[in-house]
Amino acid sequence: MTTHRAIVDELSRAAAADESVVLATVVRVTGSSYGGVGARMLIRVDGSTVGLVSGGCLESDLAEHARRVHEADRAEVVRYDTRDDEDAPWGLGLGCNGLIDVLLEPLQPGRAKYFAKFLSRAVEADRLSVLASVIRVAPPRANSSVDTEAILSGDSETGGAAPSIGAHALFTGNRIEKSGEWGSGNTLARATADSDEAFAAGRRGMVREYGPVEVAFEVLAPAIRLVVCGSGPDVLPIARFGSQMGWDVTVADHRSVDDSHRARFPGARVVECAEALRLAEVVQLTPRTAAVVMSHHIGRDTDYLRALLDAGVAYIGVLGPRGRTERMLADLSAGKGSPIEPGGALFAPVGLDIGGEGPDAIALSIAAEIVAVMSGKPGGHLRDKRGPLHGKAELESRG
Length: 399
Prior knowledge:
This protein is of the alpha/beta class. The chain has helices at 4-16, 59-72, 109-123, 148-153, 187-201, 235-244, 259-263, 279-282, 298-311, 322-336, 358-374; strands at 21-31, 40-44, 49-51, 76-81, 98-107, 129-137, 168-172, 175-179, 206-210, 213-220, 225-229, 248-253, 269-272, 289-293, 315-318, 346-347. The protein is elongated.
C-alpha cells in the first residue's frame, strides 16, 4: 500500500503546483478487503492516481466518481457491497465478500496543503493518533417519526447545526486538532469521548452514529524511525526498503559525510557518528526507533549496541552470526558487572527466516522482521491466521 508519507508528499506537491485533487480514503470495512481502513489514494484532475485503496479492482471506478466529486466540490462516500456477491451493478467482478466505504474529498490547493500538514502531524508523532471523519449526514425524511431536521438544527440531543461530510478531528495524546466544519452541536464532543474506544479497535476501524451523523474512526501509527549503524553496500537495500515504506531513515557512519556520501542513500539522512557510544547525541532514539547494527567492525558494533540498549529503543537487530553477538554481549556484561542476555528488543541474528541469499534478500528479511515487531505480530503465515487480517496491531499505548 502507498504510505501516508507518500500521500503527504503528493498533497504538498499538488498544493505547490496550484492543482486540485480528490483524496479517496477507506473509512469502513465489513468482511474482506485488500487494504483495510485508512488505505488512501490521490486522484488528479487528469484521472491519474497515486496510491491504492484495493488491489486495483476499485481504482478505475473511484476515478470516475472523483470527477463528479471534483466538479460538485462536495465530499461524499461511495459504497461497494459484495457480501452477497452482488457487485454486478459495477461490473467489477470483485468476489471479495465485503463491504467497503470510501470517502472522496475534493481538495483545492489550499485545502490540500492544510491536509498534508494535518496528516503529517500523525506520521511524525511519537505516539498513535486517532482520526475521526464525518462520513454521513442524513437529510430530513418526509413523514419520519424522527425529527431529523430538528436534530440537525440543534433542537435535540445531538444539538447544533450539522457538520459537513469530510470534517476531520485528529486526537494525539491530549491534543485535538480539527479540520472542516463540525457544526455547532455536540458531535465533536461525542467523537472525542469515543476516541479511546476507537484506539482500542485498532486498524479494524470503528463507525459511530450520533443521531443522523456517522463518524468513522481510524488509528494512525507514526512512521517507524529506522537507524542503520554502518554504511556498507549491504545497507543500501535496507535504506531503500525503509524509504519506500515511508519510514524515517537515518544512516549513521563513523566517517565524515559529504554530498557524494548522501547521494548513495536517496530518501535517507546520512549523519556522522565518530564515536559509536555517543549515538544518542547524534540521532534521536525513541520508543518508535528500530535500529540495525551492521558496521562490520566488532568494536564499533559493540559500542553501537551499548548505546542502543541504554536508549531503550523498540528494536535492535545485529547483523552477523550468533557467536559474534554473544561475544559482544559478553564484553558489555563485563563492563556492567552483570550479564546481558539476548531477547527482548534485541534480535540477533537479525531478520526473519525466509531463506534467500544476497543483500536484497537479507534486507527483505530484516524489513519484514521490523514491521512484525513494531506491529506486535509474530511474522507467521497468513494462512494460519484466524480472524480478520487487518485486526488490531499491538503497537504501543496511546498516552
